[in-house]
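Bump. Still looking for Lysine exporter LysO family protein C-alpha cells.
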Amino acid sequence: MYSGLLIILLPLVIGYLLPLKSPALQRLINRLLSWMVYVILFFMGISLAFLDNLAANLLAILHIASVSVIAILACNLVALRLLEKHRPWHHHHQQEALPSRLHMALESLKLLGVVVLGFLLGLTGWTFLHHATQASEYALFLLLFLVGLQLRGSGMTLRQIVLNRRGMMVAFVVCISAFVGGILAALVLGLPLTTGLALASGYGWYSLSGILMTESFGPVIGSAAFFNDLLRELLAIMLIPLLIRHHRSSALGLCGATSMDFTLPVLQRAGGVEMVPAAIVHGFALSLASPVLIALFSS
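Sorry for the wait, here they are.
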C-alpha cells in the first residue's frame, strides 16, 4: 500500500520542492503540462478499447459516472447551503458580461475527443498498442512532477492560504461533503468505500483524476472518474451565473479545483474581483489535496 502511495506522490513532492522563479520556465511547464494531459488521455482511450465485454463496460462507465456525480454534487450543495446559512458571504457586485460558456464547454470537451480518438485507434487491435498502459505509467510520473512544479510556481504561500478564510472554509466543506457523496455512491453502486472516496477526490480535475484512477483501478473506474469530474466542470460553467448572486459559496464550491484556473474568469466576471483571492485559495487547496487523496484511497 505505502510503496504505491510513495511512487505516486514522490514526483509530485519533488516538483513542488524545486524553486521555480523564471516566468519563461513557468510558461514552458504549463505548455508541457497541457501536452502531457493530452498524451495520457490518449493512452487511456487506447486501454479502454482493449477491455473485454466492451459494450457492457461502457454502460458500466456511464452508470458509475452518473451515480457518483449526482451523489457527490448533491452532498456538496447541501453542505455549502448550510455554510451560507451560518456564514453568509455579503457582497455588492453587479455581474459583468460573461465569457462564452459554450466556448469554455467546448474547450473542456476537447479532452473527451482525445480519449475517443485513442479509443478508436485501440479498436484496430494493432499489437504495439498493447504497450499503451506501460507508456502511460511513465507519462503519469512526468505529469505529476510537472503538476508539482506548477503548484510551486503559482506563488501561493501557506500564509496566504490560511489567511483567506472564505476560500479555505469552502474548500474544507467541499472536501468533507464530497467524501459523504463518495461513500453514498459506493454503497449504491456496490463498490468498495475506498473506490467511492477516490472518485470523490477529483474535485473536477478530470484530466488528473481519470489518469490516476485508471492506473490504480483500471480503465472502467478511471473513465468513470474522468466523466464524473468533466460533468462537474461543465455544470459549474453553466450554473455559476445563476448561483452567484444569492449562493456565492455554492458557486465557488461547485468549481472545485478548477476555480484557480479554468472557471476563474467566470467567477470573476459574475462575482467581482473580491471572488478572486478566495477562488485561487480554494482551487489551490483542492488541487494540492486531490492527487494526495486519490493516491491514498487508491493504494
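The first helix runs from residue 2 to 17.

Edit: fixed formatting.
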